[in-house]
């Protein structure tokens, strides 16, 4: 028999976005139903951030052993035990899973339904044997790997982020389609585990990032032995006896790439095909569900958030969730400010960014100053033997921090301070007045502030005042 539910809020999808809405609503005692068809925690926990960062952590250990001699430590080369490596990745997921589990959400007061949701009209969804008629709906159905229409790909075995982290053997030669965050994070990590790695991208790798900083990251990956083919078309993919073969072409003509395994990391596609969006009058296209700056869809009862609405990161999914809660629970207006959302690519070196880029600043903030600080000016970078690194800070009128971008070790941690500054409209004066512990990489912020205000030391009027004050003993 069909059971009818009438909560205030119905959330579809139990990933970062949906869980944040459900937990927030339940915390205020608002009746909320969460529908999730797969494992709780979504992509980030099960196939994304968590396993990829656990793999990167393992690769960092392998790399430390390899470079130990530079620090005067003799060590034999690393031996990779793939079974234990995979088991550790899975154990990290298992360790975090209770936080996102049905049990925890039920104890918070959320009614969790483990089934697939589909709109049947503009204010009702069906999920298994339930019909849910809610005051508001939040679509948080995420994204899945986009598979490019390359001839032969569908007939060739390939990996995606959904299968890579449970591999029982280490690839001999991993060929990666896509030089974006997924492709390059995985390329760098596998290379450090001793795998031969080739990345192919039809455009520039890391396109859309600050080109100067992207070049530092790509040079770092190449220096560790990642083969990178940019502006390269893939005409066909085929299975061979020893693995896979790609038929490619770039400015120098056609060529082939052979490898043992193929990873497709060519972008994401939103998961909304079977959601019945048309029945609910929700406008959408293959790339995203259409939303306004307040994340509301063309159906005023329905919001879409996270990757389903074109989001790119877990922290952006949680940010979307907060904006939607603000509107549904408190009836307060909310608007997404994309410029306060930082982005980090966890390659080595890392690439992090928040706010205006140097390029955007030329149009959006003419007259902005670009401060540049090299890691070599930072003592901690030297003690730890970090490679190349560069930070750029975009500074507007009266020293306002409009953006920052960092390529180098620890960039992902360092960007926190700049994200705080951008979101709170701070100026470099705030960086001058606080005391930064020595020696830390984050001191670079202070160094930036000093470099911004140092021309003041040559100010003639100020110098005259100082000369005058000296007369008073
Ligand atoms: C390899 C990789 C590494 C990443 N690393 C990072 C990182 O380091 N940092 C970062 O910020 N971001 C990272 N991301 C991006 C991040 O994973 C996503 O931005 C985030 O998971 C989006 O959360 P979401 O809740 O919108 O969607 P998801 O986590 O995808 O959750 C959507 C949920 O909806 C469910 N669902 C879908 N359709 C239905 C339906 N009809 N009925 C019921 N349930 C449904 C799905 O089963 C899923 O559980 C990474 C992504 C990948 C692929
Ligand atoms: N650290 C992080 O926050 C993190 C890490 C990984 C992924 N993510 C998120 O996951 C999402 C997916 O990342 P991604 O790297 O898969 O996607 P992406 O869209 O960022 O990059 C995909 C790359 O694949 C290339 N490509 C597409 N089709 C191709 C083809 N036919 N042949 C060759 N190259 C092709 C594109 O030119 C592009 O450079 C992004 O939104 C990203 O923000 C975030």
From TrEMBL:
FAD binds at residues 53, 141-143, 307. Binds 1 FAD per subunit. Disulfide bonds join 44-49. InterPro entries: FAD/NAD-bd_sf, FAD/NAD-binding_dom, FAD/NAD-linked_Rdtase_dimer_sf, Pyr_nuc-diS_OxRdtase, Pyr_nucl-diS_OxRdtase_dimer, Pyr_OxRdtase_I_AS. It comes from the Bacteria. Residues 341-448 form the Pyridine nucleotide-disulphide oxidoreductase dimerisation domain. It holds the Pfam family Pyr_redox_dim. Its cofactor is FAD. Keywords: Disulfide bond, FAD, Flavoprotein, NAD, NADP, Nucleotide-binding, Oxidoreductase, Redox-active center. One of its GO terms (molecular function) is oxidoreductase activity, acting on a sulfur group of donors, NAD(P) as acceptor. NAD(+) binds at residues 178-185, 267. Residues 8-316 form the FAD/NAD(P)-binding domain. The keyword Secreted does not apply. Belongs to the class-I pyridine nucleotide-disulfide oxidoreductase family. This is Pyridine nucleotide-disulphide oxidoreductase dimerisation region. It comes from Sinorhizobium medicae (strain WSM419). The lineage of its organism: Bacteria, Pseudomonadati, Pseudomonadota, Alphaproteobacteria, Hyphomicrobiales.
């Amino acid at each position: 028999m069909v059971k009818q539910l009438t909560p205030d809020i119905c959330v579809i999808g139990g990933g970062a976005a949906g869980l944040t809405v459900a937990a927030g609503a339940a915390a205020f005692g608002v009746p909320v139903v969460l529908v999730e068809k797969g494992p709780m925690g979504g992509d980030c926990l099960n196939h994304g951030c968590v396993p990829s960062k656990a793999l990167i952590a393992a690769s960092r250990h392998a790399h430390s052993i390899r470079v130990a001699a530079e620090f005067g430590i003799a060590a034999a080369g690393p031996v990779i035990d793939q079974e234990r490596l995979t088991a550790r990745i899975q154990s990290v997921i298992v360790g975090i899973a209770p936080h996102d589990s049905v049990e925890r959400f039920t104890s918070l007061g959320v009614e969790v339904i483990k089934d697939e949701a589909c709109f049947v009209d503009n204010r009702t969804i069906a999920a298994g044997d339930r019909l849910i008629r809610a005051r508001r709906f939040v679509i948080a159905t995420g994204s899945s790997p986009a598979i490019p229409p390359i001839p032969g790909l569908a007939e060739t075995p390939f990996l995606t982020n959904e299968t890579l982290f449970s591999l029982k053997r280490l690839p001999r030669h991993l060929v990666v389609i896509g030089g974006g965050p997924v492709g390059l994070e995985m390329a760098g990590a596998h290379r450090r585990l001793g795998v031969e790695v080739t990345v192919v991208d039809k455009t520039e790798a890391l396109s859309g990032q600050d080109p100067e900083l992207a070049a530092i990251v790509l040079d770092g990956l190449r220096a560790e032995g990642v083969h990178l083919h940019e502006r390269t078309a893939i005409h066909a993919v085929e299975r061979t006896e020893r693995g896979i073969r790609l038929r490619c072409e770039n400015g120098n003509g056609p060529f082939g790439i052979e490898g043992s395994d193929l990873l497709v990391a060519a972008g994401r596609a939103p998961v909304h095909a079977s959601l019945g969006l048309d029945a609910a009058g929700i406008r959408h296209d293959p790339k995203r569900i259409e939303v306004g700056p307040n994340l509301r869809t063309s159906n005023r009862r329905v919001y879409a958030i996270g990757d389903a609405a074109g989001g790119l990161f877990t922290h952006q999914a949680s940010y979307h969730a907060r904006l939607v809660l603000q509107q549904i629970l408190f009836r307060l207006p909310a608007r997404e400010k994309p410029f306060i959302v930082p982005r980090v690519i966890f390659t080595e070196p890392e690439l992090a960014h928040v706010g205006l880029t140097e390029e955007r600043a030329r149009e959006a903030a003419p007259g902005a100053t670009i401060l540049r600080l090299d890691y070599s000016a930072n003592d901690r970078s030297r003690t730890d033997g970090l490679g190349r690194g560069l930070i750029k800070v975009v500074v507007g009128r009266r020293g306002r921090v409009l953006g920052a971008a960092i390529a180098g070790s620890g960039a992902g941690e360092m960007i926190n301070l700049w994200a705080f500054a951008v979101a709170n409209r701070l100026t470099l004066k705030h960086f001058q007045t606080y005391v930064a512990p020595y020696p830390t990489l984050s001191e670079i912020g202070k160094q930036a502030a000093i470099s911004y205000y140092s021309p003041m030391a040559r100010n003639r009027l100020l110098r005259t005042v100082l000369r005058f004050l000296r007369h008073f003993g």
